[in-house]
Amino acid sequence: MNHNISKDSLSCLATLHGNSSDYFNSNDGLNVHFGVILFDAILVILMTRLVAFLLRPFKQPKVVSEVIGGIILGPSVLSIEKKFNGTFFSENAKYIIGNIGTMGFMYFLFIIGVKMDLSVIKFSRRKHRMITLAGVIVPLVAGTIVANIMSPSMDKVLSKPSSIGRVISAMAVTGYAVIYPILQELNLLSSEMGQMALATAIITDGIAIIFLIIAGALKQTDATVDTILRYIISVTAFIALGFITLRQAMIWILGKTPEGKPIDQVYIVLILLGALVMSFLSDMIGLDFATGSMWMGLVIPDGPPIGSTIVERSETFIMNFFVPFSYVYIGMSMDLFAMTSVSWSSLAPLFTVAVSGIVFKLLATLVTALLVKIPFRDALTLTLILNLRGQQEFILLMHWLEKSVIDIPSFTMLVLLVTSVTAVSTPLIRFLYDPTRPYKVNTNRTIQYTPPHEELKVVACVYNQDSVASLINLFEFSSPSQRNLSVYALCLIELNGPSSPIVDRSREGD
Q1: Which of 313, 368, 471, 498 is a plausible cystine mate for 302, CB 3.0–4.6 Å?
Q2: pLDDT at 7
């Protein structure tokens, strides 16, 4: 049977074989497929950790150091050397790294979804909603105006309403998954500003879901009414599957688990597998693959026994093995030389739209925070937190690159812009906001400086039963009989599931 194949339609790659040889039986031990991947894994983890160590004095978050590590390993720095690139990061190796990196982002969002505490929405105040709406609507409107002005200078694909709408909405929305890990590094999760930022981010994520569905509908505009209808039905069924069927399944698992006991290993495996299934379904119906994994995390009850067990048994491996591959995948998709080789006129329209979205979000958030009577220093801190960029933007940028919405120079520029915003904002947040400030006093409240006739108030933190006897001995030793002593006991238990601290007030005698 004869087939006519044009010369340009075929691309041949030399496939590396598995464990068919070793170092002593081949000219180059690194030609072994599995060996290359193992060496790449070592290189990826060591490079990202090294960059994180070097950037520690500059107070940079983990996401910035890992992106820079990916850039160093990519074609912009080390992989520009053909021998290095061909040996360690061949096309086969890049394909595997890309898939591991994609799974890293997917499971990262799954873990964030498990930790997300949706109950904070119930306690959100009017000022939270005002800040959220202003921080989303103003940059959307301003970005749309700027995009319309710059559209004649854009290429045909980027100037489409669906394409430019994605860019504007990405700059206007700051996700919970971006803010949470940075606040955790800054130790601000339980602070007033941290709680306010998380509450605002959850509301913003709700708006982002609406944008995501609308963007998916806009992609169907060239199709028939039947196609659009199928898309709407598919999204509705997907939401029902996640928030009704799977939620009931989690409640059933809770009922099967004895009180005080961790959930069975089989359920953990099924839940982790469910994240893959949900990602597959969301990608199949036209949503982003990351949406499914995050929604899977959201339906899992936070705290013990399900949420805390999932986090305990999977977070360390996901964050320290899978996620570094995600950033290396980004770095390998970037090319600084390709960006600098194109004319600025081709990048300027997209850059202007993206920067306008960031700037107007900054201004809108700051002005609204001041209008709702937040002090200037705290308002500026909240503004910087809500303008942090990271994992969700990188996922969107990779999706746009794969769908040819943007090219490699534009992708490189946007990744640098997103990373720069976070790199500048994080040290400023550290400088501006001190979470211990509300608890500082001007007078010494110690055993030594407390007058004998006044009451001595002590907060005692109890981690386990062994510490109780030592605390009692300390109180008996330090408090004479004529001094009044008030003890406020806190039993501190680490909860790996929820992102927000929980205070459980026990009754007397418990």
Answers
A1: 498
A2: 45
DSSP 337: H
- Return the structure tokens found at 208: 């982002």
Tell me, what's the pLDDT at 205?
82
Tokens of 2: 């004869």
Nearest 5°: CA angle at 170, between 428 and 324?
Answer: 70
**DSSP state for residue 15 in the 8-state scheme:** P
Contacts 24+ apart (CB under 8 A), 124-128: 124/199, 124/200, 124/203, 126/372, 127/369, 127/372, 127/373, 127/374, 128/196, 128/199, 128/200, 128/203
Out of 253-267, 407-421, 465-479, which region has the weakest mean confidence (pLDDT)?
465-479
Residue 230: partners with Cβ closer than 8 Å, 6 or more residues away: none
DSSP H or E stretch at residue 149: helix 126-150
Helix (H) or strand (E) holding 105: helix 91-115
Beta bridge partners of 485: 456
Rounded to two decimals, the pTM is: 0.82
Of 194-208, 387-401, 485-499, the poorest mean pLDDT is in 485-499
**Rounded Cα distance, 191 and 112, in Å:** 19
157 or 509, which is more confident? 157
Query: What's the pLDDT tens digit per position in 62-97?
Result: 999 999 999 999 898 888 888 888 888 888 888 888
In the 8-state DSSP scheme, what is residue 499? Answer: S
pLDDT higher than 90, residue 404: no
Between the alpha carbon of residue 84 and those of residues 39, 78, 192, the distances in Å are 13, 7, 49
Residue 101 tokens, joined: 């990196």
When pLDDT is averaged across residues 483-491 and rounded to a whole number, the result is 75
**Could you check whether the bond before residue 305 is cis, i.e. omega within 30 degrees of 0?**
yes
CA torsion sign for 183, 437, 463, 259 is negative
* CA 174/CA 95 separation, integer angstroms: 30
d(CA 157, CA 80): 29
Distance separating alpha carbons of residues 204 and 214, to the nearest angstrom? 15
Average pLDDT over residues 123-136: 84
Outline where 224-320 has alpha helix (H): 225-240, 246-256, 265-284, 289-298, 306-317
